[in-house]
Amino acid sequence: MCFSLPCPEDPFNERHGKKRKTEDAADTNDDHKKKSKGSKKQERATGPNAIPVRKKETGEDRLEYDRPSKFLVVCLNAIRDGAGASEEDGGGIHDTASWGMELWKSCAASPPSDVLDTSYQYATREQTAWLVSTACDIVARKEKLGVVVSCPFLLYLVPSQEKAVQVRSICKPLKSLGIHSVSLHPGASIEHQISGLKSCEPEFLISTPERLLELVSLKAIDISNVSMLVIDGLKDFMDLNIIKELRSIRGTISGDAQSAATVARNLLHGRITKLTTNDSVTSRSAFVAQHVHFCTKEEKTSKVKEILEHVLENHASKTAKVLLVAANDNEAQKLSSSLKLEILTVNDGSQGSTFTVCSSMGLINVLVKGCESLATSGVEEFEIVLVADLPPSFDDYVEILTRTARHTVAGEVHVIVSKTDAAHAKPLADVLANSGQAGSSDFSVLTPKGESQAETSRLMLLADSFDACFTSPLARSRRTAEIIWDTRDKDLIPDYDLREIDLYSFQGLLKHEGKEKYGALFQQWQKNPSDCSIDGHYPVRELWDRAQGCWERILTHEGKSVLVVAHNAVNQALVATSLGLGTEYFRTLLQSNCGASVLDFTPQPGGRPPSVCLNRLNQTPSSPISAESSAGRKSSKRIILVCQGATQSSSEGSLGGVGYAPLNMLGVIQAQKTAELLLDLKVNSIICSPQVAAVDTATAICEVQEAAGCLGADCVPRYVEMKNLLGLEIDDAFLTKQKSLEQIVQSGWMGGMEHQKLKTLWAQSEDAWQALVNELPEDDGAESDRVVVAIGHPAIHLGLLCRCLNLTMDYMPSFHLDDGSISVIDFPDGPKGGGIVRCTNYTAHLGRWSVPITKSTENNDEF
């Protein structure tokens, strides 16, 4: 079919080309495009909310507005023909007509609906063609109705210059139709772009966020009247850490601009339309969180009640709609009746299938349906679906999942599983893994060994006071929290963001399975997890984002002591994000099962964020030196930082002369306990400060090591090389600084040191750290196993920790070490591969904790 080109006076081409040549139309469009900015501004003098003057519609006119105009097809054909003339094939544009028509219906509706596409990471060329052609159609319709169209009408945000050029090339054929587009990106000078914007007012603006905000701040362009906003490739925006810029742009646009986004969960609000050209379950169920709950058949009603109460708590600000799915209509009736007996409800349905849950927190409207009645229940309208009975066919569950929350960005599907559903366990696990939500599943429970570890942790924390306990909602973590929390009065606080890391296709794979199935990609996950993308997702970056959100909620308990019980990976993220460390520190600050890490938050004056100090990392019930692997990798090279035992001077609260005083009775006990702890490990060399307390501590360790045969720890004699290292000595400038006992013991006390003295200590730590690393062999031969013990004052060891982690001097107050404590650093990739911190300030060998985990509210002068 052939169409002649439209003109401004006939944008819908209603004259069907009669007595009108293509060249004439193009000339007219050029004239239209080149009209002065002054005339446009004069036309818009009535303001952005001008009421259009519209002729009386005939039935034919109204019918035409219910379907795309011929101008839309003209635009699509122009883009197709333009692509055909280039290296790319544009023939697929009309193959996506079904998707395009749904897009057009959403954008052309009154009122229009925002659109979220979950097909791929970026809009395809065909999808972009439909996006811009739909915008052209809307512009033409508005002009036909006499509505003044503000420029730019369409703002198309892209993450890079390359993407901007690509989108601009798709829009270029529309220029002959009177639609002018401009691309703005850092690849051109800003002066050139300012000059260009002065000479034209483009209908379409394609831009990177940073450059757009620059031009807006310089008043080179006004985007307050943008009518249609497209955000293409939100994943890349997240990777580039420019989400704040996106939100700033979204806030600059007045009114309710339409947003058609490839991925835009955090930018869309209210009713939307979800589209996809990808038929996979993952794409069709994007942004729908799946929660799996286990219980017996008899406990099902109680579990449903518990989930509804959780929904009520999380949606307190609005009335939530919940679809409750039972095995059949008869079971639905029984379940509804049982719930009404246990929960305060108001019956809303004539047959009792609908009721409202009432509480002081809010309301939930619940519709109870049997599986066979779901076809008429409008699953698409529900944000939350609770499947109390899995359907006989797992395909029916997939149908429920993919139909949930089609008109909101986020949704939830809760599934209750009992022993009778064993046949569905494998396909359900596969769906969770493919959707990247296996971390949200409750398929693993706490083992007897895990319960024993949790009980040991409970005893370790028994004397400590906590005001609140946050926990992952998953069963294994929640059970651990219940054991540790024990009989405390306050309820546990489940936080969904504390769930385990989502690994998508890698979920549940053993190492050899991952290598066989994914090869180089799995190796990248092992070597560089922070930059590894799995199924289009960056698991570690997503984990870091979740951890930051958790801190916002945890820190609302200001001035309180809070216990957080979660999983190893998310605990790593919590520790790192609290210190301001990025995703590159994943697997660098280890967390073991039931390992406790303590973070101290100290309020700062003037409303500044609190200072944060890692009081200790990964204090485990078992010895930190017994494990032979770090982050899942075997490690034969290790540096152990041992803080010298207490001296009379340190007990009196003075650092002056601390290195020149011998160990006091407490220090002797600390040194002996440390020596006993290290007995199970063959120490090759001891590097210590030449100061007396360090030498005394080193001597105690050396004597126990060489007596290993007599003590039954080794069948062959051990010979330990002992050296003095001046770099571990505290110099005179530092020793003149006096501190009270309270300041020394207090977490983060290094922050009170004079800058110059701290700078001197920092410079000293560089040579000391390098000397320790040089003690480790670089080869991986049979004789390469080596354990080096470094003994010195806690202050110098703080510098060594920061050197190990490639941090700056400013981070020294962010760590804390006590007398007699040990910190373990492994090198699974050799000394050149960097260290992995297994634990810091470990003191369990000294008798549980050497100082209380939570700060005492009483004055106590005893150490």
TrEMBL record:
Official protein name in the record: 2-carboxy-D-arabinitol-1-phosphatase
Keyword Plastid tagged: yes
GO MF assignments: 2-carboxy-D-arabinitol-1-phosphatase activity
Listed SMART domains: PGAM
Main location: plastid
PANTHER family reported in the protein's UniProt record: 2-CARBOXY-D-ARABINITOL-1-PHOSPHATASE-RELATED (PTHR48100:SF10), BROAD-SPECIFICITY PHOSPHATASE YOR283W-RELATED (PTHR48100)
The protein's Enzyme Commission number: 3.1.3.63
UniProt source species: Aegilops tauschii
Family: Belongs to the phosphoglycerate mutase family.
